[in-house]
Amino acid sequence: MLGKKLVTAQKRGETRALCLGLGMVACSMMMYFFIGITIVPFYAKSVWTTETVCKVLKANIKDKVFCPNSKGSEDEEIFPYPCLQVWVNLTASGQEVMLYQTEDTLERNPKCSYVPDKLENSKEVKARIETIASNFKKYQTFPCYYDPGGTQTNVILSRLYPAKGLLFAFLWPTLMFTGGCLIIVLVKISQYVSVLSAWQ
Fold first, then answer.
1. Domain layout of the chain by residue ranges
2. Own/partner pairs for 61-67, CB < 8 Å, 24+ apart?
3. Mean pLDDT value across the chain
């Protein structure tokens, strides 16, 4: 009787462990799919892949402009803000080009180097843009990214999804997938050893 209870408990434990391993594998596959349809296209689409050094030539704040969100924006999403324009000297080619914060900044408003968040207060936006402009004037030289193919003549300050960020995004699903596979393998080994012991 006691032996049967031990065998039953062992089978239940193996079943739960197997379900856990399969669940981890399934979740990791879903995470891979989500990353593949969200982050990877933006990373592959970006042409600003080469890092270089930029030197600030001028950083001016123009009059207020309206932020037209691209791709069919509604009127209520359009808001005014001071337009910061930063021009830099590209070390790689010696050209005078305009600097943008990220790839998204160029798509949202190609006239300005920085596009604030819609939900920010107007006074906070003005103070932030003035701070950014003063920082550019203070720190004249900094790393930036340009398009080595020449499709885009402008440069960006930082990439939305750099290579390190993409690897970090794939790290957690990879660990979960490896852990799930390891649990499944251990359960199968345990079952094989149990069957082998019973046969002997």
1. 50-161, 163-199
2. 61/85, 61/129, 61/130, 61/133, 62/112, 65/109, 65/111, 65/112, 67/108, 67/109, 67/115, 67/116, 67/118
3. 82
